Amino acid sequence: MSDGKRACALDELPDVGAIQVIIDGDAYAIVRDEEGGIHALEDRCTHAEVALSEGEVEDCSIECWLHGSRFDLKTGAPLELPAVTPVRVYPVSVEGGEVFVDLTRDVGGERASAAAKEG
Ligand code: FES
Predict the structure, then answer these.
(1) What is the position in ligand 1's atom list of the atom closest to the CA of 83?
(2) Which of 41, 45, 53 to mutate to test the pocket of ligand 1 (most atoms within 8 A of CB)?
(3) Which residues of the chain fall below pLDDT 50?
(4) Which of 2, 9, 40, 48 could form a disulfide with 90, with the two C-beta atoms 3.0–4.6 Å apart?
(5) Which domains does the chain have, with CATH numbers?
(6) Is 26 helix (H, G, I), strand (E, B) or coil?
(7) What is the pTM of this model?
């Protein structure tokens, strides 16, 4: 059994791109990157709070359609201005063709601080 909450079926995701799912009243972007990796982010740009799930997915990042900030799908870090604050990134598991998200952890923040420690 997964620890997470069910987000969607794997085959609801585009080959490369994102969909919005609502879990317990909050919006999350479930994303498939070019290499088939699945990611879960809070679906709200940290600049002006529009849905990131409507943006383009490229090079393991998602672009905010409003002003063009891109966010790293693994760490949530903004890669381009105007956004300067990371979005939360949650651990994902796939079981039996279903995508589950552990909403209790911000794995993006954990990855970012681990990378900072490694220098
Ligand atoms: S709202 Fe996303 S970059 Fe401005």
Answers:
(1) 3
(2) 45
(3) none
(4) 40
(5) 5-118 (2.102.10.10)
(6) strand
(7) 0.94
